[in-house]
Design goal:
Length: 456
């Protein structure tokens, strides 16, 4: 007789491992905090009443910044609740609070949390949120002030979360760049005329992270399709404030990735030379935007100054490649003249004719000392012109020498009176070191580099 079959229906009664009962913490203080502040809001987040859910989401958004509360919320599976319930809530305020909760946790916890979010397919949720934000922004004045405010809040949280995710793992960064809706959101937030400064800066900061050694994003930017990211970035980089410095950083990453150097400039003759005036001006300090909240990283002038120094230091490193391209180009042109066989034969013919006239008047064929001095003056003037031309062949080096280096030296040699000043001094020295190292690749025994040597 065959064995009786196990009741397959019994499997449906298994408990959801995600929804398993969470044991209270052994610490009496944490246990009391859990009972008083955590369990009530968790219960309300799952409530059928929309108002209760919205109020609970706002409450969690406020308390999640506290480390003890955050750890307790994580124990109570707050991420699972937010992803599956809060972010899909019909109420826009609830969704905004949900994104803010994830943003805070991602910024405060280790990178492992961002990797965990990625594995939970958070990018799909961000893609949907990005599309919703873009649709509301496209409506313009048709959206109420209240809805517009919440839309901007969602955008800010989503972009900050994207930055944290991109910094956590290269695989996540590549996945972000592969989603058109997310890239379009970032480009739009940077270009939109009504973007609050804090959100524009968050979007620029995210692009700075995403654009490093990333050809796919670089090509999307230089394609300059609506909302015209390349045009927007080149306009922003003209001002020596936080937006301008961040735009310089994004553009430098793009120039490096696409090899837009002095000898091979890109669209609109763009290369790092165009960025140095702004970065050099930023070394003198800048005032934060009036509408920038104090909690923003970019409200601190020291952060802006440090970023400008880091970009200049990186330009100092890529300067070697840029200058080698320029020297190679000049060397090829000169060698082309020297290899002209017909010209060599013509010179030989002239030399033979001169030998036939050797017996002529010595006074007519030679120069006195005054004539030699005059000739040296003329030759020297020609050298100056040639040297200036060489400097024009390497505009990035020219801009560094004329604008950045004097200010870098000042920052590097000023006595540091604080930890921030000491950190800035170190970054200034690093930038100078990178520039000097790149200059050392020149062969100054070559007359072609005489002008650069003199300028240096």
């Amino acid at each position: 007789m065959g064995k009786s079959r196990r009741n397959r229906g019994a499997q449906s009664h298994r408990k959801d491992p995600i929804a398993k009962t969470v044991k209270p913490p052994s610490d009496p203080e944490l246990a009391a905090l859990r009972e008083k502040s955590i369990l009530p809001v968790i219960k309300d987040l799952k409530s059928s009443d929309p108002k209760s859910r919205t109020a609970a989401a706002a409450a969690v958004s406020n308390i999640v910044t506290d480390e003890k509360c955050r750890k307790l919320l994580l124990r109570e599976q707050i991420v699972h609740i937010v992803l599956n319930e809060t972010l899909t809530d019909a109420n826009l305020d609830s969704r905004a609070a949900g994104w803010d909760i994830l943003r805070v946790i991602a910024e405060e916890e280790e990178a492992d949390f961002c990797i965990h979010l990625y594995r939970l397919d958070i990018l799909s949720a961000i893609g949907f949120a990005s599309q919703a934000v873009l649709e509301n922004l496209a409506k313009g004045s048709a959206v109420s002030k209240g809805e517009a405010k919440v839309t901007w809040a969602i955008a800010e949280s989503v972009v900050a979360l994207l930055s944290a995710l991109a910094e956590a793992q290269d695989e996540i960064l590549e996945a972000i760049v592969g989603i058109e809706g997310i890239k379009n959101l970032l480009f739009t937030l940077v270009a939109h005329a009504d973007s609050p400064s804090s959100i524009c800066l968050e979007a620029l900061s995210a692009l700075l992270t995403l654009s490093e050694d990333n050809r796919r994003l670089a090509e999307d930017v230089v394609a300059d399709e609506n909302p015209k990211p390349l045009t927007t970035l080149t306009k922003l980089q003209a001002t020596a404030d936080a937006k301008g410095v961040l735009a310089c950083g994004v553009l430098h990453n793009i120039f490096t990735t696409l090899e837009w150097f002095d000898s091979t400039p890109g669209q609109k003759n763009l290369s790092d030379a165009a960025l140095i005036p702004t970065l050099s001006s930023a070394l003198q300090g800048s005032e934060p935007a009036a509408d920038l909240p104090p909690k923003s990283q970019w409200s601190n002038p020291t952060e802006v100054l440090q970023l400008a120094l880091e970009i200049l230091a990186d330009i100092g490193t890529t300067l070697q490649v840029s200058m080698q391209g320029g020297n190679k180009k000049g060397g090829e042109e000169w060698n082309g003249i020297g290899d002209d066989t017909a010209m060599d034969e013509d010179i030989d013919d002239k030399a033979s004719g001169e030998e036939d006239n050797v017996g002529g008047d010595d006074d007519d064929s030679s120069m006195d000392e005054d004539d030699m001095a005059d000739m040296e003056m003329v030759t020297g003037a020609d050298d100056e012109v040639e040297g200036e031309a060489n400097m024009d062949d390497v505009p990035t080096l020219r801009e560094l020498i004329q604008q950045a280096i004097p200010r870098l030296i000042k920052l590097a040699t000023t006595a540091a009176q604080s930890d921030d000043a000491l950190r800035i001094q170190g970054h200034a020295l690093s930038a100078l070191n990178n520039i000097a190292w790149s200059i050392s690749v020149f062969d100054f025994a070559d007359d072609h580099n005489a002008g650069i040597l003199k300028a240096w």
